[in-house]
Amino acid sequence: MSELLPVIWYVLLAFLLAGYAILDGFDFGVGILHPLARSEQERQIAISAIAPIWDGNEVWLVTFGGALFAAFPEAYATVFSGFYIPFMLVLLALIFRAVSIEFRSKIDSERWRRTWDWGFFGSSLLASLLFGVAVGNGLMGIPLDDRGLYLGGFFNLLNPYALLTGLLNVALFAMHGCLFLYLKTPEGDFRIRLRNWMWHTWGIFLVLYMLATMYTLLAVPTAVPNFQKFPWVGLLAVVSVLAIANIPRAIYTNRAGQAFISSCVTIVTLIAITATALFPNLVIAGNDPALSLTIWRAASSEKTLQTMLLIAVIGMPFVLAYTVAIYWTFRGQVEPDKSSY
Amino acid sequence: MDVVLLSRVQFALTIMFHYLFPPLTIGMGVVLVYLEGMYLWKKEPIYETAARFWTQLFAVTFAVGVASGIVMEFQFGTNWAVYSRFVGDVFGSALAAEGIFAFFLESGFLAVLVFGWDKVSAGFHFFATLMVALGSMFSAIWIVVANSWQQTPAGHHFVQMMRDGQPWAVDGEPIVRAEIVSFWEVVFNPSTLERLSHTLIGAFIMGAFFIMSISAYYLLKNRHLDFAKRSFTGALLLASFFCLVQLVSGHSNALMVSMNQPAKLAAYEGHFKTGPGDLSLIGLPIEDEQRVAMNLAVPGLLSVLVHGDSDTPVSGLDRFRPEDRPPLLPTYFSYRIMVGLGMTFIALTLFSLFLLWRGKLFNQRWLLKIFVVAVLGAVAANQLGWIAAEIGRQPWVVYPVVERDSAGKPLLDAEGFVRYRSTEFPAAEGTVSIAGLRTKDAVSETVGSTEVLASMVMFGLIYLLLGALWVLVLDRKIRKGPIPVAARATSKSHGLLDSATQRLGREGVGRQEEDES
């Protein structure tokens, strides 16, 4: 049991991360595409599409952070203190995004709103990029000492591979957000433009996806052995490719809902593949694999993992229930004139 | 500059700014539940008008609370990595429970509370409001549990970590952390209930004073009189009750501190020498001379409060090694001003209740003016309480447990200092003894002072902006005031008409598409 519990928590963390990426991913995408909205009414539609739910979506990140802290404190401490400046920038972006969404409609002034619109765009872009950069660095590995402390500096984190995964994440969220916003937008000029952008974002994502895949297979040695060890990763890859391929098909046949679900599947498979590539490491020591922080080295005591599992088993059904209830309440397209807030 | 000091200042800055908002939302949440409940019961539109108005203020406050709160969780890892490694096993569980049980609940149902007025039934809206209020209290519970464990740890033990099946040591130094032995002992550690009730009551008082402040403003401006009088009366009743309860809670908190953190109590009271204690009302403690200058004190009262008679000795700062004593002046003054504010509130609310009973309250313009600004006092009292608790916890970030004899008297070591329970671990040279974790040893090893300074400046600027935005938007909302539901109905019918036309239009388009296909 003591060997298995960290594995269970590794999977649960991947689940929380996937929930976060799917839900907040489209919030970020809406932010990245926000400059496409031309009139105030269009901008209002984009904001109203996510206004009631973005905050609940962000809780998935908060809970992921809390769970990482509790289940794998060694990894939490190493990563957060090691990536100090990037994380501060993430926090900056998350605060600005919150403020932009919440405050833009509070004062009736064109300049006021435009300022926050750019804040919303910039913060969404920055956070998406940094999340991708973090994943890239995670796969590449970072230099660690024998206490598990990060030995590099800020600029080590900005290597070409990590920047590529950063851009990939931006493209993924932009596509995902575009599909979501299309579902939420009433008929009109904006919807037609969003339809075009579904094609554009998908194309950009596809190109970056292929580049990143090739780069990973050629130049990221840590990722490959696990793909040989766990043959079912091949299945994940197939599902991933099918999901990506289904997006243009669904757009073409006017089934935007299906396209959005395919995009969700794409996100889940990408996270699953990444998690498999990393396993059993939480932090790969690029300088010496023997120093890597595995889930067993980084884990809390068995007692804590058990307690938390119980908490998760009790709590998660509730969380899923009210997530569904709230999405159901706010289902359907945005009604442009009911700009509540 | 010193990275420990900078990290402490950054934490203080971010937590103090954040803590302006949660008490308000906790306090206002209770009021919203009451208003919506009354609306469901009595169906009087005034309750809906009021609920909608406070919901607007609640939403803005909640948003700033969320934006500033996300920093808190990640800051443990970024700035206090050693602490995170040391306590993760114990502290992390409470934090994760907070996410699962509290944050999802509040943020999910907040959507219904704010955006759902015209989408869901009144009954479901009430339910959502109740869940938001509960969620905000749950989050207080878990974070206070975690903080209380730091103050008065229980249900844990210190163990050397294992790495690949071997006890883990780096350069001969054992790597030690706290691990849970009993989850419920961690949750109900000696200070949880006392501190949680004190915190929640403080939040209710702050919420009530906030509502009284805005209502008093309307009364002075002669606007929204019915709304303002009802709100003021309700909040005054709430505040008077909770100010009195807070006095009782404060006393039992002090007793709890005297048991578990005697050094903190000695600093609160400026009590230097062990012996019967006078209760210092106000003075200037001078550490070098071991006395309180210009001391206005009630003889023997400290001993009476702690032990029930005026002769029993109370542990003074002299029972602790100089390096184990908290900074004296900030602890002494923050505690004293908090208590002073609390006493003032009791007098103020009881006097106002008396005037209310005599039907004279709402003509006392001077008193209403006091109530407009009194909320600042409530904010200060909440902040000062935490300052006293946290600076009084120094120099520890995880407090050591005081060893006692069967009668409850603290045990002393050979040099006459209070003994802390400690665990020995074999090291390269002799042994390492762990009793708790000192703040100076808890910061991230890999983060330098330049980085902390940079992030601190960044947070400082953002928080100035956030604070200014909050005040600006709140000010506009308050100036605009509550919109009576009757008036709203006309504007709503206009909106309904519009959206109905649009819906017709959309359906028309839909039909066309169908025809084409």
What is the overall number of helices of chain A?
A: 13
Distance between the termini of chain B: 72 Å
Q: Are there runs of chain A of 5+ residues with pLDDT below 50, and where?
A: none
Mean pLDDT across residues of chain B: 86
Rounded radius of gyration of chain B (Å): 27 Å
What is the terminal-to-terminal distance of chain A?
Answer: 50 Å
Overall average pLDDT of chain A: 88
The fraction of residues assigned to DSSP E strands of chain A is under 5%
Helix fraction of chain B by DSSP (H/I, runs of at least 4): 55-70%
Question: How many helices of chain B?
Answer: 14
> Structural class from helices and strands of chain A?
mainly alpha
- Major sheet of chain B, described briefly? 2 strands, antiparallel
Structural class designation of chain B: mainly alpha
| Largest interface summary | A-B, 73 and 79 residues
The helical percent of chain A reads over 70%
Report Rg of chain A: 20 Å
How would you write the strand order of the largest sheet of chain A?
A: 1-2
Strand order of the largest sheet of chain B: 1-6
What does this entry look like structurally?
The complex is a heterodimer of chains A (341) and B (517). Chain A is mainly alpha-helical and 341 residues long. Helices cover 76% and strands 1% of the residues of chain A. Chain A has 13 helices and two strands, in the order αααααααααααββαα. In chain A, helix 1 runs antiparallel to helix 6, helix 1 (4-33) crosses helix 11 and helix 3 (54-71) runs antiparallel to helix 13 (302-329). The longest helix of chain A is centred in the middle third of the chain and has 31 residues, at 110-140. Chain A is globular. With 517 residues, chain B is mostly helical. Chain B has one domain. Chain B has 14 helices and twelve strands. In chain B, the strands form six sheets. A two-stranded antiparallel ribbon of chain B has the order 1-6. In chain B, strands 2-3 form a two-stranded antiparallel ribbon. Mean pLDDT of chain B is 86; it is low at 489-517.
